[in-house]
Design a protein that fits this description.
It is built from 7 helices and 12 strands. By secondary structure, the protein is of the alpha+beta class. It has a 4-stranded antiparallel sheet. A 4-stranded antiparallel sheet has the order 7-12-11-10, with helices on both faces. Strands 1-2 form a two-stranded antiparallel sheet. A hairpin with a 2-residue loop joins strand 11 (226-232) and strand 12. It binds zinc ion. Zinc ion (ZN) binds at residues 6, 8-9, 11, 40, 42-43.
Length: 267
């Protein structure tokens, strides 16, 4: 491809200075990256501020990143808010990239009361809030963004026709508008289910273990539907690039014994 053209706004004359991560860096992705010229700076900045930041800074992802020790771009792991008991104090639990953990009084807490508690009491407990996933619509747009970028990456890797199969394809205009401008469907339904524990260690052929933070694939069904399927921290999500329904994916799962397209040979 010689000419730059944005897969979201279809502009070819904006700035294209950034390389776009298909899965945000803050989820540990350093390998699935689109070259310059595929997502313009205008769209890239919009997604960073309005879609990725609110999803990744949500309580759900902050806690998950803290537990699994995934640093952000600045190599920080976000602390999580906890409440102590029996002395009720707002505390923060921090993690370092080296695996150390520390606990301290939050800015709005009485530090003297915290010091008093840890020095005078033999034991105290901390309570973790258990957050839900961020709101459905925002999270669906996050999935839609990654779906189109993953499709672009697949086409580029195969030396395919980015214009014919993505940019100029009218069947993809609905998801394009939904991801980038929030237009169209009120609710873009996606599938989600837990595949494995968040801290599951996979074993390699040579016996070494590794963590899979995210893994994705594109699935073409017999009904000619295209699905983006991704596992993030053990949860599988699937979204239909052709429309806001997920029935075709559920049918596919039924005829494939519920196996994830990410692990066609089982896990
Ligand atoms: Zn753009």
């Amino acid at each position: 491809m010689t000419q730059y053209c944005c897969i979201f706004c279809k502009s070819d004359d904006r700035e294209f200075t950034s390389r776009e991560h298909v899965v945000p860096e803050s989820l540990g992705n350093s390998e699935h990256i689109l070259p310059r010229g595929i997502v313009c700076d205008w769209c890239n900045n919009y997604f960073a501020r309005k879609v990725e930041a609110p999803v990744l800074n949500s309580a759900f992802f902050t806690q998950a990143r803290n537990r699994t020790g995934i640093p952000n771009k600045r190599r920080n792991i976000p602390p999580i808010d906890v409440l102590s008991y029996p002395v009720a104090l707002h505390l923060q639990l921090a993690a370092s990239t080296g695996g150390d953990r520390s606990i301290y009084a939050a800015n709005d807490s009485d530090n003297d009361a915290f010091v008093d508690m840890i020095t005078k009491r033999k034991r105290f407990s901390v309570v973790f809030p258990v957050p839900k996933l961020p709101s459905g619509r925002l999270f669906a747009r996050f999935l839609a963004m990654m779906a189109l970028e993953a499709w672009a990456k697949t086409i580029l890797d195969a030396n395919g026709d980015l214009h014919g199969d993505l940019i100029d394809k009218p069947e993809l205009d609905e998801i394009r508008g939904f991801a980038r401008f929030g237009t169209g469907a009120d609710a873009w339904v996606y599938a989600s289910r837990r595949l494995y524990a968040e801290d599951h260690h996979f074993v390699d052929d040579d016996g070494s273990t590794f963590d899979v933070l995210h893994e994705y694939t594109l699935l073409y069904t017999d009904a000619n539907e295209l699905y983006f399927v991704i596992a993030i921290l053990g949860i599988e999500f699937a979204i239909n690039l052709g429309g806001p329904e997920i029935d075709g994916y559920n049918d596919w799962l039924k005829s494939n014994a519920g196996r994830s397209p990410l692990y066609p040979n089982g896990m």
